[in-house]
Amino acid sequence: MEVVKKMGADITIGVSLYGNVFPINLNKNKRISKLKAGMLSRFLALKRLTDMDLSKADISLSLKIPNEDYGVFKKFLSGHKLIDCGFESTEEIIKEIKKLI
User: Residues 89, 64: contact at Cβ < 8 Å?
Assistant: First the structure.
């Protein structure tokens, strides 16, 4: 956010693609495998960095991508679904955006 503000942005909108990764929704057995724990651990740092950037943005979006568990990278083949998710999330805060403009 600091970079785009230095570049002259009047309003900044931060977008997180990790809104549906945490909190973890455990199944019946309330346990996760070591592999799954390892995969999730890399998103802890990414989520923390994202949260820090979002806190500096004028407006924040945290996308809740359906059926997402380990990140959007495996979903790039269905990019239109990501765009639809972003559109719907933006629609929810459009009034807030208009106030800033």
Answer: yes
Domain map (residue ranges) of the chain: 2-100
CA–CA gap between residue 76 and residue 90 (Å, rounded): 20
Please give the structure tokens belonging to residue 85.
């998710």
pTM, two decimals, is 0.65
Which residues, in sequence order, are bridge partners of residue 62? 16
Q: For each of the chain's 101 residues, which pLDDT tens digit applies?
A: 888 889 999 888 888 877 777 767 666 667 778 887 887 787 788 888 888 888 999 988 887 776 665 555 565 556 777 788 888 888 888 888 888 77
CA angle 48, 79, 94 (to 5 degrees): 65
